[in-house]
């Protein structure tokens, strides 16, 4: 199995992604076309979870199909072991790696989710997770549902970008910097950075319901997918253990508020999340034992954040229930 702990001490994420974009004008050779592309995700992955949430909030289900990899992978690739015969029913491939190699025969970097695949050619288009969700908001507007929220409003983009960048470096990636640290010094530094950022977020969210403006934006989506994994995985497995999320009242209430908002909690599969981290990271957890806890019932308790005002979807409306075939299995979420 692959090794995840950084032998050199400090973990540094490889951020060299496939930057091809799917745009309304097709300037990279891939125009937005309903039915042409397939979004490949894994519910276990926080980066993929962002794409699942944004696709659902914007109502892109009819325009962009979705394929789910299983919660674990080997050294070579994410696999479609949830599908009959272990083959994606649309792309007809057993491994996401096949779509990468179809476009780049010598591709040597990590096979990551989310990825968008061009169905007619079977070739990966992009795995640039940060740009994917922004493009859903800005390039796919012709196929948004009626009442879709504006997750990336023009007037707030500079602030959203600034907040999201700090969340990415200090929180989204910060938990990994703790978990994959290869020395005590690197871990201590990463731990301090992470909790300094969580303290900053606590202060920011103490008197405002959402991170930027008075509605849900891209920034909230990006923070949520780390917070929802914090107690099940990061607190213990990655040693991010100054506090549990449930011991940080402001962030715990904020996370519950989002979890109980349609499009957020109904995308979260706690069983797959735990299976992924505890089974795949064998150098951290060599027994591959998946813990039974924590108790998840608290996610559905009242959060009281409505008192801060705000309008979750702005002038829009909540999405409807998840589509058949896209629902989190019973018993895999809270409640």
TrEMBL record:
The UniProt keywords, alphabetically, are: Transferase
What InterPro entries does the record tag this protein with?
A: Glutathione-S-Trfase_C-like (IPR010987), Glutathione-S-Trfase_C_sf (IPR036282), Glutathione_S-Trfase (IPR040079), Glutathione_S-Trfase_N (IPR004045), GST_Omega-like_C (IPR047047), GST_Omega/GSH (IPR016639), Thioredoxin-like_sf (IPR036249)
What Gene Ontology molecular function terms does this protein carry? glutathione transferase activity
What would be one Gene Ontology cellular-component term for the protein? Answer: cytoplasm
Domain GST C-terminal residue range list: 153-280
Binding residues for glutathione: 78
Q: Where is this site: Lowers pKa of active site Cys?
A: 234, 277
Residues forming the catalytic site: 45 (nucleophile), 176 (proton donor/acceptor)
Q: What is this protein called?
A: Glutathione S-transferase
Organism from which the protein derives: Mycolicibacterium agri (Mycobacterium agri)
